[in-house]
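Team,

Forwarding the record for the chain on the shared tracking sheet. I've put the sequence and predicted structure together so nobody has to dig through attachments.
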Amino acid sequence: MAGDSSFDVVSKVDRQEVDNALNMAAKEVRNRFDFRGTDAAIAWSGETIEMEANGEERVKAILDVLRSMLARRKIDLKALEAGEPRLSGKLWKISASMQQGISTENAKKIAKLIRDEGPKGVRTQVQGDELRVFSKKRDDLQTVQNMIKSAEYEFAVQFDNYR
């Protein structure tokens, strides 16, 4: 493996960028006219994002504001996992979390795609919550990256440690 080049397929989001998007969304919710008097709020609660308002449509609107702010900060929306609106007392709430890491089953899906459709001589190895891709030719690795980008997955995918 001394002559091999490699890269990692990961699913990570920058916590600081998510925090910035959340703060921008909270500011917009505070300042928008249609949210006045609706007890609308959005904030971190541990590792989850909690949204609440006094109506189901209002809490869905807060989620839309958060999604637009995440997109503005160039965070892949596939990383956001939002639950269904639920009634809690007088308020409607939605809990959302940011998905980190690639599950073993999703890493196997990517590895199968590479094995079936990728160039010969490209190998993969699952390492925790990421997938390492090896090849002797850098051109093959770039081909694999383009192939993974063009495939539609239900999770966010980035590339890291290209060597």
